Amino acid sequence: MEGMVPISTSDKMYQRFEEEEIYHIRYFNLLLNNQRYKLTVHPYIININETTIMTQVQENIPTIPSYIFHPQHYI
Asked: Which domain holds residue 32?
């Protein structure tokens, strides 16, 4: 799934993300994925806003196999 962070909340939100970590994200908007250049083939995107709550998952999560991912090619 693709996501968006509006500029009004970007500074606050980006400081909370760490690479290679997993987060539980609540209270976001679900929008139609009608963008011209889609990063995914999913019909929806999530839009993080001021009410979004993100908590880092502390449990050990099994690795997602790479064969599940299907990146899009753009020409």
From this structure: 2-57
For the chain of 75 residues, list the mean pLDDT of each consecutive stretch of 10. Answer: 62 68 88 77 82 86 74 62
Global pTM value: 0.55
In a domain, 62, yes or no: no
Listed in sequence order, the residues at least 6 apart from 62 whose beta carbon sits closer than 8 Å to its beta carbon are: none
Name 25's Cβ contacts closer than 8 Å, sequence gap at least 6: 46, 48, 52, 53, 54
Q: Which helix (H) or strand (E) holds 14?
A: helix 7-14
Domain annotation covers residue 51: yes
Element spanning 3, H or E: strand 2-4
Number of domains in the chain: 1
